[in-house]
Write a structure and sequence with these properties.
The chain is α+β, with helices and mostly antiparallel strands. The protein is built from 6 helices and 3 strands, in the order ααβαββααα. Strands 1-3-2 form a 3-stranded antiparallel beta sheet, with helices on one face.
Length: 114
Amino acid sequence: MAREDDVMPDIADVTMVDVLRAVADPIRLRIVQTLADGQPHGKCGTHWDFGVHKSTMTHHFRTLRQAGLTRTVVAGRTHTIELRRDELDARFPGLIDALTTTEVPMGGTAADRA
């Protein structure tokens, strides 16, 4: 049974502001870039080794799902995450391509990157 926070919004209800707010965090943008390969990814795995706690990753996964960027598929005890690529491309043409070709700086401050 799905909990209320597990529900993803209908794509018609997803706004550009929701999407951009969700990917404003560098870790969430890296998650989207990882998922852009079109494959479902398990919630556990070395591909999520971003140097943060599991609970923090859970928060990032939930934020992306609630913003309408991802879906979580549950099969028994296995949870996989997928990018809603086709739906997002139809709603916001070119956005995912733009997000997935952007290099994400990790660490440091804005002044360090300038």
